[in-house]
Amino acid sequence: MAQNGQLTAVWGKILSELETIITPITFKLYISALEPVDIKGNKIVLSTKSEYFANTLTERLVSQIKKGISKADTFVSDFELCVGKSKEDFLSIKGYSTNESEYDSSMVDSKFTFDSFVVGNSNKFVYAAAKAVAENPGSSFNPLFIYGASGLGKTHIMQATANSIKTNFPEKRVIYITCEKFTNELIDSIRHNKCPDFRAHYRNIDVLIIDDVQFLANKEACQEEFFHTFNELYSQNKQIILSSDSAPSEIKLLNERLRTRFEGGMTADVQPPDIETKVAILQKKAAEKKYMIASDVLYYLAENSGNDVRTLEGRLTKVLFASILHESPITIELAESALKESIGEESETLTTTYLISCVCNFFNIKNTELLGKKKNKELVEPRQICTYLICELMDLPLVTIGTAMGGRDHTTVIHSRNKITELINNNDRIAKQVNDLKNIILKK
């Protein structure tokens, strides 16, 4: 069940796009009369006045509404209609409070699914545990604690679990959030004397998923608050999923009572992928970008690629870029040349500061504008491109990238990276801008 704030924000974005697609008369007569009442999985539920009204919409406006949803660029990708219910009626029937929460519900990336997760010997145990939790939240492995080094797919498997639960149990309230955002919201609630609102938000849910929980270390107030939130949810058999870069016993400056609770369920570690899993990952990533790459090239890319998946994907991206830039087929010779050119020569000098400067100069905007909070398109697009380029050209943790991009959450980094990846495949202008910028940065 979507929180009201999230529902209003998503529908507002969709309405803005629909106004540009549908004629004013039709918009006023039909679209403005719709009321958003829920979000189920990837669908927004809209209430209509009558069966006749719903039939008219279905016959005349389905394609336009879906186009507006797509252009709005939210995690929603489709819609369904219900007849004659107000938001209050709908929430009452479902058994939910209609009180607004000022805390945003989690924005889980719909691209992270179990189907898109490559399973190998290094992660099959974590995958099986997460699937079991998704099929029976609150009963199997509670809490589920996932740990492993950066770049091994912890965020992917956690968001895949969230997406699966939201699809299979649309009535359940699921929150995915980073530990950094959780602590920031807590600090704000203390500052503004709104701790009861904060507690109500996080203790009246069905599934709580927190990424990078190691950031609780040495934060006494946050640990205290999370301890009570954990206990409240656990006592009600609500599912808790946590991730960290290390096992609970290895997190320094963590309160012992939290440590024992983290270890009280299922702990599962993600190991670096073996060579076969690396090749499978490369095959899937190449297929997503509509490339067929010979197995000898894939094995070449997989060898000596380090232990994390992010570096592996970066090597693939550099080779694909070289193929486009030089208009050459993807061979081992091209791959070897591309990796030497983009990694060997530039890795020592390439910094986020330099890369951000290149993007600012390219788009003729100020550094403060790129890293600021304004959301007009002429700034958002360069900001997302810059984030994408840092992800692709530098082997940095998502949290580090978010900090470099003005203190943004790592889920924002993921969204920007995925958004530009999609646009590169569908928008020639964006593809050219990204290629030109890569050429400028790597050929400086």
Question: What keyword list fits this structure?
Answer:
about 450 residues; alpha/beta; 5-stranded parallel beta sheet; 3-stranded mixed beta sheet; 21 helices; globular
Structure explained in plain terms:
- By secondary structure, the protein is of the alpha/beta class.
- Helix content is 57%, strand content 9%.
- It has helices spanning 4-21, 24-31, 51-60, 62-72, 87-94, 124-135, 154-168, 179-191, 195-203, 220-235, 256-262, 275-288, 295-302, 309-326, 332-344, 352-363, 367-371, 377-393, 398-404, 410-426, 428-442; strands at 35-40, 43-48, 78-83, 144-147, 174-178, 207-211, 239-244, 266-269.
- The strands form two sheets. A five-stranded parallel sheet has the order 5-6-7-4-8, sandwiched between helices.
- Strand 6 (207-211), helix 10 (220-235) and strand 7 form a beta-alpha-beta unit.
- Helix 1 crosses helix 4, helix 19 (398-404) crosses helix 20 (410-426) and helix 20 (410-426) packs across helix 21.
- It starts with a helix and ends with a helix.
Structural class: alpha/beta
Total E-strand runs: 8
Low-confidence stretches: 90-105, 343-348
Strand content: 5-15%
Output mean pLDDT: 81
The helix/strand order is HHEEHHEHHEHEHHEHEHEHHHHHHHHHH
Q: What profile does the largest beta sheet have?
A: 5 strands, parallel
Which descriptor suits the 3D outline? Answer: globular
Number of helical segments with 4 or more residues? 21
Cα end-to-end separation? 50 Å
Trace the largest sheet across and list its strands. Answer: 5-6-7-4-8
Radius of gyration from the alpha-carbon trace, in angstroms: 23 Å
Helix content: 55-70%
